[in-house]
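=== RUN LOG ===
request id: a7f3
mode: sequence -> structure
chains: 1
length: 300
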Amino acid sequence: MNTEKALKTESGLSLYHPLVSFGYFVAVIAGTLLFIHPFFVLISLLCAILCAALINGKKALLATLGFGVPMFAFIAVANPLFNHRGATILFYLFDNPVTKEAMIYGMVSAGMMFAAVIWFTCYNTVVTSDKFIYIFGRILPSIALIVSMTLSLIPRLMAQVKIIADSQRSIGLDWKSGSIKQRIHSGARILSILVSWALEDAVITADSMRARGYGQHKRSTFSIFRFGKKDAKMLLLIIVLLAAEIFAYVSGRGTMEFYPAIVVPEIDFIDTIIYISYIALGLIPAVIQIKEDLKWKQLK
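=== RESULT ===
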C-alpha cells in the first residue's frame, strides 16, 4: 500500500522534467496575476481548484479553501468600502457611496488572489526543492539554495509547532485549555521553544554546509532528470499556449475597464481562440493526472 501511494504521488505533472513543470507554473501563475478580467479570473480559479483536488487531494484542498474563502470575502468586501470610484451608486454606508464598479472589481481582485494561492499550493507539490535547485543550482547556486530553504521553512515550522504542542499537552500545558492567562503563557512557551529550535537548526545547517566545503570551490552536480521527447512535446505546447497568453496581455484583451463604468468588450473570433487556449493551459495538470489515474486503474 505504501508503494502504491508513493507511485501515485509521483504521477501526473511531477513525472515531467523540472524545467517543464516549473515553466508551466510560471505561465499559469503569471496569467492569473496579469489578467484583470472576470472571465480569465473565473477560468483560472476553476482550473486551480480542479488541479488542486487532483494533485494535492481533497483534504489539502479543503484546508486551502478554509484559508482562501475568508481572504476572498475580506478583499471583496474591503474594496467597495474603501474605494468609492464608479458611476453606479448602489447605496450609502456611513455617508460613503458603495458603487457597483468597486464591488465587482473587488470580487475580481479577490478571485485573482484566491486562484494564485491555490496555484502556489500545486506548485509546492510538483516543483519540490530538489527540482528547484536542479534548475537554478548552476546559474545562481546561492540564491537557489536560499529560496529552496525558505520555501521549505514554513512546512517545517508548522510540523514542529505540532510536535511541540503535543509534547506540552502531554505534561499538562495545553494552550487550548485553562484560563486566558494560562493559554497566553502556554502559547508564548511554544513560540519560545519554536524560535530556539529554528535558531539551533540554522546553526547546525550552517556548520554542516561549512564542513562539506560549500562555497569554497566549484561544485559538481548529479541529476536523475533527463529531458526526453515527452518533455519536449509538453514544453512546446506550453510555449504555444503562453504565446496566446502574451498576445492577450499585450493587445489588452486580457483586461476590462471597471472605472468609471464597466465596459464589457465584445467577444470576437480571436477572443474565443484566446479563451480556449487559456482553458487548455489551465487544464494541463488535470488532464495529465486523469490520464495517469486511468492507466493506474488499468494496471491494477
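=== NOTES ===
The chain has two domains: 2-138+227-299, 148-220.
The chain has a mean pLDDT of 80.
=== END ===
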